[in-house]
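Practice problem: predict the structure.
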Amino acid sequence: MRVLVTGGAGFIGSRIVDLLVEAGHTVRILDALLPAVHREKPAVNSAAELVVGDVTDPAAVESVLRGVDAVCHQAAMVGLGVDLADLPAYAANNDLGTAVLLAALARHRIGRLVLASSMVVYGEGGYACPADGPVRPGQRKTADLEAGRFEPPCPRCGRQLLALPVTEDAPLDPRNVYAATKVAQEHLAAAWAAASGASVVALRYHNVYGPGMPRDTPYAGVAAIFRSALEGGRPPRVFEDGGQRRDFVHVRDIARANLAALEHDAAPGRLIPVNVGSGQPHTVGEMADALAEAFGGPAPVRTGQYRIGDVRHIVASSARAHALLGYRPVTTFADGMRAFARDPLRA
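Answer:
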């Protein structure tokens, strides 16, 4: 199969490229190599063809689609954003870029797409109240956060909630700019699939970490931020009380899920969302502790600070990934964190 990987020189995209090449596929990469992401020219798999171009540029996209059987769309501006001034850049890179790609796919009659989505589309994860059953808590109140009350209460009776794995049929509830653009990407891809008879698998990544993560950037994932602090001799600063539950999934497992999705005979005319996690929920505090211990200190600090728009708990149910794609994560939390303490990061 001839596969185009947009963003294929990036943290996740480069791992997908390596795995596709290893599996015997022919791979072409479209990557803008933006200085904000690549301060140095990245090394890419020598067996893949690298085309430098922006997914928002129709001419660049047209030039790379000839002879392509499937597309793995990883190109995106990631992270939660610094402030609302980031809105135009997120909308252009993520949503306009996806629209340009989909229009070109329709012209070339390419009917197989794997889309990099994210767990941020859900907002908060799954919750159940002992009195009211399954509920969807709203955004946490500033007064509660200031007082150190970080757990979202039941929106009906105010009781403490039990956090549950989130499934793909949960309502979408984007709570920041990045999340809104990922929801828009899914909706654009679903509309394209319905109109063209194509198939889309939208992989909703949970918290991805591993070698090659970008360092020292406000848009980086929390694992890279903690690792950068440790390298600088500073303690990782954990927001709230560190009790936020997440699903930390290794980038190699994310790549394996993409390969499985590309090789899967998905239903035509629709988009299928699929959670991709590790199946091993841990708190942010546990992750910081494990990383600091493996690195050799200093110990993390629970700051009590918070960010409006952050969610408390979001953990994946990977049942659909298991059933549909045969996906089974390989890297355990303990092994992954020990390795990540010494893994090379990207400048």
